[in-house]
Amino acid sequence: MRIAIAQVRGQMNDPPANASKAKMLLNNTDVDLLIFPEMFATGYDMECAKFMKNMDVMFNNKVNTNIINKKCLMLFGCPVEENGKLYNSAILTDGENRQIYKKIHLAPDDKFSEKKIFAAGSEPKIFECRGRRFGIAIGNDVMFGELFRWYASKGADAVICISAVPGDVLEKYEKVLPARCVDNSIEMIFVNMVGPDPGFVMAGGSRYISSEGNIIERCPDSSDVRIIKLDEQRTNRSKERREFLKDIRKDIDWSV
């Protein structure tokens, strides 16, 4: 299957402009799955709640027809409001139906102040595309191995992590990302935002990482759309190596 990593900027405070960018890439990309970064729909804006009443009109409805016409799936970062709470979310849609993953581990850094405006999600999410299974993560989720261990234990072929981090944070991610792949024998598609936002610059550096922790494909530190092909034989071998999951010690009280 063919997957497109769209390492682009989510224009701050301009969902219609971001929808136009998504439509352009949909029209010019022949893939099964198109992935955009964290908070792509609004830009990484801590005042994104102001868009919630009109988000469908400004963004979602504008891209649905294009997604249907291309007969593909699109995964993108977008704030979502439910029951009076705002969530930093990843939306997966085929243009008619959608699934939502809500970021479980909000970033603690005061630079982003996520915990001040977002509620934390509480459920992992796996979806299928062309017979392959993908787990979803957002940004700071990569710092918590239990989420990736859960995806591995449920037979996911790969984890897709969308993100919006600047260079100093990406340096830490570059150490953690391959470790998550190796210790769970699972591949990862990491899609980071790129370009300037107020006060910092999103670093790009999106990549496709094997279960051995090797970079298969990597985007530069500028806007880029990279087509990757999921190697089913390689992902199947990775899943076969997960026999180690049977050796997890369940007789130990890890809460001690």
Task: Please provide a written account of the structure.
The protein is an alpha/beta fold. It has one domain: 4-Layer Sandwich (Nitrilase/N-carbamoyl-D-aminoacid amidohydrolase). It is built from 6 helices and 14 strands. The chain has a 6-stranded mixed sheet, with no helix packed on it. It has a 6-stranded mixed sheet with strand order 6-7-8-9-12-13. Strand 3 and strand 4 form a beta hairpin. Helix 4 runs parallel beside helix 5. The N and C termini lie far apart (44 Å). The mean pLDDT is 94.
Q: What's the layout of helices and strands?
A:
Layout (H helix, E strand, L loop, with lengths): L1 E6 L7 H14 L4 E3 L19 H16 L2 E10 L2 E9 L4 E5 L11 H4 L8 E4 L2 E7 L6 H9 L4 E6 L3 H18 L2 E6 L1 E4 L2 E4 L3 E3 L5 E4 L5 E6 L2 H9 L16
Parallel strand pairs: 1-2, 2-3, 7-8, 8-9
Antiparallel strand pairs: 1-14, 3-4, 4-5, 6-7, 9-12, 10-11, 12-13
Helix pairs in contact: 1-2, 4-5
Strand content: 25-35%
Can you tell me the CATH architecture? 4-Layer Sandwich
**What can be said about the biggest beta sheet?**
6 strands, mixed
Could you name the CATH topology?
Nitrilase/N-carbamoyl-D-aminoacid amidohydrolase
Uncertain runs: none
Shape designation: globular
**Which structural category fits the helices and strands?**
alpha/beta
Mean pLDDT: 94
Helices and strands, in N-to-C order? EHEHEEEHEEHEHEEEEEEH
What percentage of residues falls in helices of 4 or more residues? Answer: 25-40%
**Alpha carbon gap, first and last residue:** 44 Å
CATH class: Alpha Beta
Tally of DSSP helical segments: 6
Looking at CATH, the homologous superfamily is Carbon-nitrogen hydrolase
Q: How many beta-strand segments?
A: 14
Estimate nothing, just give the exact number of structural domains: 1
Cα gyration radius (Å): 17 Å
Output the strand order for the largest sheet.
5-4-3-2-1-14
